[in-house]
Design brief:
Keywords: Hydrolase. It holds the Pfam family Lactamase_B_3. InterPro entries: RibonucZ/Hydroxyglut_hydro (IPR036866), UPF0173 (IPR022877), UPF0173_UPF0282_UlaG_hydrolase (IPR050114). This protein is α/β, with parallel strands linked by helices and 240 residues long. Helix content is 20%, strand content 27%. The protein has one domain (3-239): Metallo-beta-lactamase, Chain A, CATH 3.60.15. Strand 11, helix 4 and strand 12 (196-200) form a beta-alpha-beta unit.
């Protein structure tokens, strides 16, 4: 099955799995997109990795969707942003969403609400989206995308996510300062053993401005066979 992955800059992705649509971490106030939330069709599901402003700022514009995240965050979205439907899940869990299965995994990051960090809204995470339910039996026919969220390098990528959840493609933060930089993100791509790696969370703000070519060089230096897919804003990559 094909999976359409559209990057709207920063950590914002639109994912289409056989007609089931997801919007991950909607934040359109970034230099890679010319779109505003009003330009984007409401997806079936809004997936939120954590509650920092640059990941949930535009979530309320899609309140007709079902919001998915840790219960603390989905509860906040219901109370404050008008969502009527939610799926509160947690790290390690898998839920069925339309034609896809969504597994939440940990991310090494913080999770304060907005830029003032007034509230703690549960653990940050990342999402693995697949057209097949994960099992210990390898399935070469599955198509699987890993959105790592905001994270540093962690051994679970090598020990759990790569060998058992088997992503074909991974969107990895590489802007440094607040997340992995090019070196650690390249190691993550190698550990995950993905066919394609898509950089994100870079060049949005001055602290995370990098030369994205450094990421390409670091991936090559690991010996990984992953193809680095550097997308323009609002560009779609088809995962097959």
């Amino acid at each position: 099955m094909t999976m359409e992955l559209t990057w709207h800059g920063h950590s914002t992705w639109h994912v289409d799995v056989d007609g089931t649509t997801f919007l991950i971490d909607p934040f359109f106030d970034n230099p890679f997109t010319d779109l505003s939330p009003e330009d984007v069709d409401t997806p079936d599901y809004v997936l939120l990795t954590h509650s920092h402003a640059d990941h949930i700022a535009d979530a309320g514009s899609f309140s007709d969707a079902t919001v998915v995240g840790v219960p603390e965050l989905t509860g906040y979205m219901e109370d404050e942003e008008g969502f009527e439907n939610s799926i509160g899940m947690n790290l390690g869990g898998t839920v069925e969403c339309g034609e896809a299965f969504v597994t939440m995994h940990r991310a090494d990051h913080t999770n304060g609400l907005m830029t003032g960090y007034e509230h703690e809204l549960g653990m940050p995470g990342g999402f693995v989206i697949s057209d097949k339910k994960p099992t210990q039996e390898s399935d070469a026919d599955a198509t699987t995308f890993y959105h790592a969220g905001d994270t540093g390098l962690m051994s679970e990528m090598k020990d759990v996510i790569g060998p058992y959840l088997e992503p074909d493609a991974a969107a990895l933060p590489c802007g440094d300062h607040f997340t992995m930089g090019p070196v650690q993100a390249a190691i993550a791509a190698d550990w995950l053993d993905v066919d394609h790696v898509l950089p994100m969370h870079y060049d949005t703000f001055p602290p995370i401005e990098i030369d994205i070519r450094d990421f390409e060089k670091e991936v090559k230096a690991t010996g990984s066979n992953a193809d680095v897919q550097i997308l323009d804003g609002d560009e779609t990559f088809t995962l097959e």
